[in-house]
Design brief:
about 260 residues, alpha+beta, Double-stranded beta-helix, six-stranded antiparallel beta sheet, 19 strands
């Protein structure tokens, strides 16, 4: 069990992971709706507006406005709080929604803020604020893969995110540049400069199959990358799945194509 100034936790599994959080009496963890896996008797589950952080203390209207921002990133108005109301330590677990890894952000060690893709957040210690981050540059909002709005995680506690495939952490030096597929960016610290760059060369963007734009990350700061974005996985499933197969399926050409690429 790994300790932090707010909560203790342990991550289980390899490709399909879940995180077990140990709560002291009266300690609370928050999670996205649908992330819950299991919990000990003595933990109380409560649906709340937004994330329950101190930033939402401006009455019911303030809470509604803060929670409403989550609709802009495709999340629910509500989150779930899990509080240990019993005696002694209790455990609650949250699971990733698809194959990949769980990333642990110690916000106190990361400057108090992380910017993440819209569906990355899994759970956190109560007090961590989950808000929205608008892209400052027009180009990154239109072509950056995640749109104008991303999630921001703020506070000094632990937060947990999930990502697809294998996770790579990179520490970029001042001025160091890393070019990444836009869908592979999971999160980065607030001091990273995030921009986009168009793929050069007519053949590259017409026949390369890699999209028209790179994400350009400039240090100093830390970035987290995923090897398998969920959009890429979903695209492959649709490509090989039943009625979503070849447009020419059933024709002589379609049958020959299926033989050539190993589908028959």
């Amino acid at each position: 069990m790994i300790s932090n100034h707010e909560i203790d936790y342990k991550i289980y599994g390899e490709e399909l992971q879940f995180v077990e959080i140990e709560l002291d009496p009266n300690e609370t963890a928050i999670a996205e709706s649908g992330a819950f896996m299991m919990m000990d008797n003595g933990i109380e589950m409560q649906t709340i507006f937004g994330d329950g952080s101190q930033q939402q203390s401006g009455g019911i209207l303030g809470k509604l406005m803060s929670a409403g921002k989550r609709l802009l990133v495709g999340e629910s108005l509500f989150m779930t709080a899990f509080t240990n109301v019993g005696q002694g330590k209790k455990k609650v677990s949250f699971a990733s929604p698809y194959t990949g890894k769980i990333i642990v952000f110690d916000l106190k060690q990361l400057g108090g803020k992380i910017i993440a893709q819209k569906d990355a957040f899994l759970c956190a210690a109560k007090g961590v604020s989950i808000g929205i981050e608008f892209q400052r540059k027009l180009g990154t909002g239109i072509f950056g893969g995640e749109g104008f709005i991303m999630q921001k995680l703020e506070g000094d506690g632990l937060a947990f995110a999930h990502a697809g495939g294998y996770i790579v952490e990179r520490n970029l030096l001042p001025g160091e540049i890393l070019k990444v597929d836009t869908g592979c960016v999971v999160a980065y610290t607030a001091d990273i400069d995030f921009d986009i760059e168009m793929v050069r060369g007519v053949k590259n963007f017409m026949f390369g199959g890699e999209g028209l734009f790179f994400a350009v990350l400039t240090g100093p700061g830390k970035v987290w990358l995923q090897s398998l974005p969920i959009s890429r996985l979903a695209g492959r499933i649709m490509q090989y799945g039943g009625s979503f197969g070849r447009k020419e399926e059933g024709s002589i050409l379609g049958g020959l194509g299926n033989l050539l690429d190993g589908r028959e």
